[in-house]
Amino acid sequence: MTINTLSQDGVQRQQMPCLTKMERMIISMQDPDMGIKLRNQRLLITVIPHAMTGLDIVEWLIKKCSISDEEALHVGQLFVKYGYIYPLKEPRNLILKADDSSYRFQTPYYWMSTRWPASELDYAIYLAKKNIRKQGELIEYEKECYNALHKRINHTWDFVVMQAREQLRASKQRRKGDRIVLECQEQAYWLVNRPPVSPEHYKLTTLTKNTIAMLTPWCSLKYIGVSNLNGSYVKYCEQYQPHDPIMQGCLPSNPWITDDIMFWNMNSETYMFIVALPTKLRVERWSFSFMELLNDQMGRKEFLTYLEKEFSAENLCFWQACEDVRHGETAKIPEKVDEVYKQFLAPGASRWVNIDSKTMEKTLEGLKRPHRFVLDDAQMHIYFLMKKDSYPRYLKSELYKNLLARAIVPQETKKSVFPFMRRQRHSSPSPALATQTAEDDGKAKYSNSNSGTASRL
Amino acid sequence: MGEMEQLRKEAESLKDEITAARKAVQDLTLQDHVAGTAVVGRVQLKTRKTLRGHLSKIYAVHWGDSKLCVSASQDGKLIVWDSYTTNKVHAIPLKSSWVMTCAYAPSGNMVACGGLDNMCSIYNLKGKDGNVKVMRELAAHTGYLSCCRFLNDNEIITSSGDCTCVLWDIETGSQKTVFAGHLGDCMSLGVAPDFNTFISGACDFTAKLWDIRDGQCRQTFGGHESDINAIGFFPNGNAVITGSDDASCKLYDLRSDQELITYQDSGIMCGVTSLAPSFSGRLILAGYDDFNCNIWDSLKAERVGVLSGHDNRVSCIGVTPDGMACCTGSWDSFLKIWN
């Protein structure tokens, strides 16, 4: 039988380093010339091929590694415990006896490195097979497992039973000797990976604990149907496409192409201050999501104006104050939090915000030891309040609709054709050259930024 | 028996739950959905500017706003460019020339860089006397600094070759949270648009989503067959795009916890070094080892364009926050602005 250390698909799996070392030893043990001498062993009435005695194993280890009796025995024990060698006579007793009790090498298919972690489904199939083969053959522990599994993976139980039946049927077609060997191998594998009595699997415990730690947060995820999500990607891309200058260009023009910085000017804050009219695209974007509105300074101001009319402006102010705490200097957090409490949370505060009692209690508790995220829960509550209530109403309000109607759609500016605008398009070989030229070009461009006008200036 | 058994059962049942949940939501593929979407057509971007000034390989570039960007090169310089005029606003000499990453703070007040010196150095651009000086040196990593990103002027997240990512408090220079869990060097990271989570890609072929507040790994995405070199969030914040040495990019959806699309082509056999989505997310620009940058239609998984013009490997790429243009940095010491 070929022993291949690469697992399926040729992909190297993340292995415990000790396993690699163990496997190297096992392989050399099975070397036809230098390894342990294997012979046929009689087990009850059948002959098992390629078996060896415990004594053989210990002696080989002593000779190969020049170690003492005790150490060889210990190393041999490890091989048995990790399932690389299994005993034939008393399969449930996973220890190595340095006498003539027979042992066999476990097939690489069942090696810990290739098969760990053992899946529940496989174990269920194994137990189901045992159960079908001979009712009542399951020991107490296995019976417990079987029942637990039956409960837990009930939705795939039909599959389990079907697989078990298939595997039993396939095995019946093998020769008796092979069948027994395979059964022994499987049994040994499951004994190692589901050991009922041995308390010594420290390494396995840590690995398992890590796995659980990694997996537990996942199970609180709410899985959303992939088709719903796919729709959302398409929708998102389509919605944002007019705002994606690489996909669809922009008005009045892309400054990188025409050297006209009108676009940046029109959307800058100083411009807003003078003329106070944003572009239509910008105002439209505020309707895509609440975050878009809040992320845009002008949008936030407009929203605040609206909320003031509704007498719920303190919500937005509170949200902004919380953002300031979250992203601001660490040293100022306690005083900022205190300010927030005085203004928004204290009973009878001038701008008291409406938070449910549970969140309020939790926040007040946390205020005793203020940190960056202490106001998160309250902020989230207010955020969702605004998002579900004020935001949709704002989008339907006269204030927003008026602004949208008055918003500018800039006229497109054509690419300028001044001769001295030609730039070099090829890359020059030496980085030290041409820095001067680049700077000269830059100066020339700035002198010509009036090639386009907006329609409403 | 006892504890080990309990743990085993728990771990395995969790895994099976996850596999079953993932399978259960695979009702329709993205391919079926986008069949009706309009085709993007050929996207041709031209080089609008070439930023010359570095004397050696450029390893990283990061946009600060629509015009300013910072680039790091192994000639030991960090250059802040006004890319529109191609002027160098600042040229910062570094103590260690083995720099691998750089970042621009969203406020525009600071830049950071780091590399084989295992440290993240923060530079204040708006110092009182106009000089750019080192503000902080964040040292605690035991491996090289592969990527860093600012959350705000007080916090920065770094990823390192020691397999961890760290959230630092810049003022005190101390580590606030250590995100450990990767089994290989963390190569890159990306912060979510809402600043509550971030993702990291590592040499253990997985990408992990971390919660910044409590330091937990929320999700892990596998599927790549080699080191993940580049990672980024899809603009809607609900998906993660990764680029790997196995010559493919993948899109993972966070809410259904699985891989949705792979962007690969039999003609491409070299690794992805960097990637950036366009503003709407429809296009993904990815830089490769074969000196080119490929543009992918993110929904249909087709290649719709190429940016060729560099004479050496494209090591970094970034799209401006307003989506106007993209910048590629290469080992040929030039930065090119395209749109």
UniProtKB/TrEMBL annotation, chain A:
<dbReference type="GO" id="GO:0009968">
    <property type="term" value="P:negative regulation of signal transduction"/>
</dbReference>
<dbReference type="InterPro" id="IPR044926">
    <property type="entry name" value="RGS_subdomain_2"/>
</dbReference>
<dbReference type="Pfam" id="PF00631">
    <property type="entry name" value="G-gamma"/>
</dbReference>
<dbReference type="InterPro" id="IPR016137">
    <property type="entry name" value="RGS"/>
</dbReference>
<dbReference type="InterPro" id="IPR047017">
    <property type="entry name" value="RGS6/7/9/11_DHEX_sf"/>
</dbReference>
<dbReference type="InterPro" id="IPR047016">
    <property type="entry name" value="RGS6/7/9/11"/>
</dbReference>
<dbReference type="GO" id="GO:0035556">
    <property type="term" value="P:intracellular signal transduction"/>
</dbReference>
<feature type="compositionally biased region" description="Polar residues">
    <location>
        <begin position="446"/>
        <end position="457"/>
    </location>
</feature>
<dbReference type="GO" id="GO:0007186">
    <property type="term" value="P:G protein-coupled receptor signaling pathway"/>
</dbReference>
<feature type="domain" description="RGS">
    <location>
        <begin position="289"/>
        <end position="404"/>
    </location>
</feature>
<dbReference type="InterPro" id="IPR036305">
    <property type="entry name" value="RGS_sf"/>
</dbReference>
<dbReference type="InterPro" id="IPR015898">
    <property type="entry name" value="G-protein_gamma-like_dom"/>
</dbReference>
<dbReference type="InterPro" id="IPR040759">
    <property type="entry name" value="RGS_DHEX"/>
</dbReference>
<dbReference type="GO" id="GO:0005886">
    <property type="term" value="C:plasma membrane"/>
</dbReference>
<dbReference type="GO" id="GO:0008277">
    <property type="term" value="P:regulation of G protein-coupled receptor signaling pathway"/>
</dbReference>
<dbReference type="InterPro" id="IPR000591">
    <property type="entry name" value="DEP_dom"/>
</dbReference>
<dbReference type="GO" id="GO:0005096">
    <property type="term" value="F:GTPase activator activity"/>
</dbReference>
<dbReference type="Pfam" id="PF18148">
    <property type="entry name" value="RGS_DHEX"/>
</dbReference>
<feature type="compositionally biased region" description="Polar residues">
    <location>
        <begin position="427"/>
        <end position="437"/>
    </location>
</feature>
<protein>
    <recommendedName>
        <fullName>Regulator of G-protein signaling 11</fullName>
    </recommendedName>
</protein>
<dbReference type="GO" id="GO:0005737">
    <property type="term" value="C:cytoplasm"/>
</dbReference>
<keyword id="KW-0734">Signal transduction inhibitor</keyword>
TrEMBL record, chain B:
<protein>
    <submittedName>
        <fullName>Guanine nucleotide-binding protein G(I)/G(S)/G(T) subunit beta-3a</fullName>
    </submittedName>
</protein>
<feature type="repeat" description="WD">
    <location>
        <begin position="307"/>
        <end position="339"/>
    </location>
</feature>
<dbReference type="InterPro" id="IPR016346">
    <property type="entry name" value="G-protein_beta_1-5"/>
</dbReference>
<dbReference type="InterPro" id="IPR019775">
    <property type="entry name" value="WD40_repeat_CS"/>
</dbReference>
<keyword id="KW-0175">Coiled coil</keyword>
<dbReference type="InterPro" id="IPR001680">
    <property type="entry name" value="WD40_rpt"/>
</dbReference>
<feature type="repeat" description="WD">
    <location>
        <begin position="221"/>
        <end position="262"/>
    </location>
</feature>
<feature type="repeat" description="WD">
    <location>
        <begin position="51"/>
        <end position="91"/>
    </location>
</feature>
<keyword id="KW-0853">WD repeat</keyword>
<feature type="repeat" description="WD">
    <location>
        <begin position="138"/>
        <end position="178"/>
    </location>
</feature>
<dbReference type="GO" id="GO:0007165">
    <property type="term" value="P:signal transduction"/>
</dbReference>
<feature type="repeat" description="WD">
    <location>
        <begin position="179"/>
        <end position="220"/>
    </location>
</feature>
<feature type="coiled-coil region">
    <location>
        <begin position="1"/>
        <end position="31"/>
    </location>
</feature>
<dbReference type="Pfam" id="PF25391">
    <property type="entry name" value="WD40_Gbeta"/>
</dbReference>
